[in-house]
Amino acid sequence: MILRRLVVGEYQTNCYILGNEETKSAWIIDPGSDAELIIDELTSLGLIARSVLLTHAHYDHIAALTRLKAHYPAMEVLVGKEDEKGLDYEVIKNYCLDRRFFTIHQEALKNLPKPSEYLTDGQYLEDSRLTVIATPGHTPGGRSYYHKEGRFIFTGDTLFARSIGRTDLPGGDYPTLIKSCHRILELEDDVQILPGHGPITTVGNERRNPYL
């Protein structure tokens, strides 16, 4: 198993690459932007993108999707159904608070690929060995991805090192977010938390998270 973290774009989004050395397949978690950087990293690792797994569909986590899909036409895009509208250009245009970001990435955001599949709570993605955990609150369709064998979980913008996701954007809900964070904390202390921004942490460390 190959695991890489790339910090991409204006919002320093953590984009993760999970690769299978035998099949040469890769799963990309949250391709925020800097598509060429992601493609170069995949190429250097000898991997081909099989799927993109979105923890949620905010613009700072999806702007590289269009270029990646053009480069890897067979690549799937997987997301929680409740976040499908986050891939709609008109929706993004209305809620994107950063007009500079929107202007720079407008063409990419205008041509985002449609979801290939909607991911449900408890679903096991056998090819990547990830289990889908529904973690709404930051967005209605938030998803985390737990790799039991690797002892890590991709949490997107639900849970950070000593912080939690914001809930003031459309669809955000604070009580729901707190429940989702506590659901993640049901895992063992040594499980690594790979968040959407900032440093990697562990479940044990986040039991002392001041927001929880």
Task: Describe this protein's structure.
It is built from seven helices and 14 strands. The protein has 212 residues and is an alpha/beta fold. The strands form three sheets. The protein has a six-stranded mixed β-sheet, with helices on one face. The longest helix has 11 residues, at 35-45. It is globular and about 40 Å long.
Class of secondary structure makeup: alpha/beta
In angstroms, what is the radius of gyration? Answer: 16 Å
CATH homologous superfamily grouping: Ribonuclease Z/Hydroxyacylglutathione hydrolase-like
Do you know the CATH architecture?
4-Layer Sandwich
Q: Describe the global form.
A: globular
CATH structural class? Alpha Beta
Helix content: 10-25%
Largest sheet: 6 strands, mixed
Question: Could you name the ranges where pLDDT drops below 50 across 5 or more consecutive residues?
Answer: none
- According to CATH, the fold-level topology is Metallo-beta-lactamase, Chain A
The overall number of domains is 1
Strand content: 25-35%
Please write out the topology:
Elements: E1 2-8, E2 13-20, E3 25-29, H1 35-45, E4 48-53, H2 65-71, E5 76-79, H3 89-95, H4 99-104, H5 106-110, E6 117-118, E7 124-125, E8 130-134, E9 143-147, E10 152-156, E11 159-160, E12 163-164, H6 174-184, E13 192-195, E14 201-202, H7 203-206
Helix pairs in contact: 1-2
Describe what is shown at a glance.
By secondary structure, this protein is of the alpha/beta class. The chain has 7 helices and 14 strands. The chain has a single domain, classed as 4-Layer Sandwich (Metallo-beta-lactamase, Chain A), CATH 3.60.15.
